[in-house]
Amino acid sequence: MVAAAELRYTVGGHETFPFRTGWLKKGFDALREDGLAFIRDDAVVRLGVGKNMVRSIRFWCLATQMVEEDPRPAGSKPLRPTHLGIKLLSDDGWDPYLEDVGSLWLLHWLLVTNPVRASAWYHVFASYPEPDFTKARLIGFLQSIAEKQQQSVSPNSIARDVDCLLRTYVPGNVSAGVLDATFDCPLSELELIRPYDKDGIYHFHVGPKESLPPHVFGFALLQFFRRYGSGRRSLNIQECVYAPGGPGQAFRLDEDSTLSLLEAVEMLVDGHLNVTETAGIVQVYLHVDQIGLEEDLAIQLLDAYYREGEQYV
């Protein structure tokens, strides 16, 4: 389970910008050379964007878990690439320019399971209860979370988070009247949130996701086992679909599409996971030698996906 302290609502540092194509690679490369790249006097020149965008790129690199704070004592808090960031965004990595839709699903998962850095994204995809919503309803939902935590968060700050969240998933020409698609966030390609034609109502696209690779779903499931299962070796399908922070909620899947993906993952991991049904109850069993090896198996799944054509790990 996610620790209570990690669920505290924190206002984003996105500077109202959703991330754009090339931003994560740009920030990753700069930080690989210099952990203080974002706070150097020449950061604007090095990254080729304005000051607000420098701060936004920093936010998005952290929010998508491509980089992290270096734990070594230092008042300036240098950043460093994560293991997964290196795997994905290195020049010889899996997909440094995010050309594969599987990479977008992976980044979406990493974003919406990061309550510390991306609170609005986490809470909306983990526990917003309705398929339809308006901006005002999302603002009220997040404000109620902050109030339950006895936090004083400005409604205007939450409104900016909601605007940015919507522009992360809805093309600009729909969400903000901007016609230039080059400013759209790559995650809008996933079509997880769809606007209705009128009344400012949005809709979560719940159901099968044809472009979601089972390898990426499997990666998410294995991370969910580690975080939610707390050492357990089985989950039922309702937990996979409906539990806050789980793959079903994150990818907005229904039970049928979740079951199909579970069965596909079962084929991919060659004995490390199996799906059974007894008396109408579907259970997912994980078979690894030691607790903690879920993450190794998850990385192996992604390795197999990006190697193209290698189906088993």
List the helices and strands and how they pair.
Elements (H helix, E strand, L loop, with lengths): L22 H11 L9 H5 L3 H13 L3 E3 L9 E3 L1 H7 L11 H12 L6 H9 L4 E3 H14 L6 H15 L2 H4 L17 E3 L5 E4 L9 H15 L5 E3 H6 L4 H5 L3 H14 L4 E6 L2 E6 L7 H13 L7
Antiparallel strand pairs: 1-2, 3-5, 4-5, 6-8, 7-8
Helix pairs in contact: 1-3, 5-10, 7-8, 10-13, 10-14
Q: Can you put this structure into words, describing what you see?
A:
By secondary structure, the chain is mostly helical. The protein is 46% helix and 10% strand. It has helices at 23-33, 43-47, 51-63, 83-89, 101-112, 119-127, 135-148, 155-169, 172-175, 214-228, 237-242, 247-251, 255-268, 294-306, and strands at 67-69, 79-81, 132-134, 193-195, 201-204, 234-236, 273-278, 281-286. The strands form three sheets. A three-stranded antiparallel beta sheet has the order 3-5-4. Strand 4 (193-195) and strand 5 form a beta hairpin. The two termini are 27 Å apart.
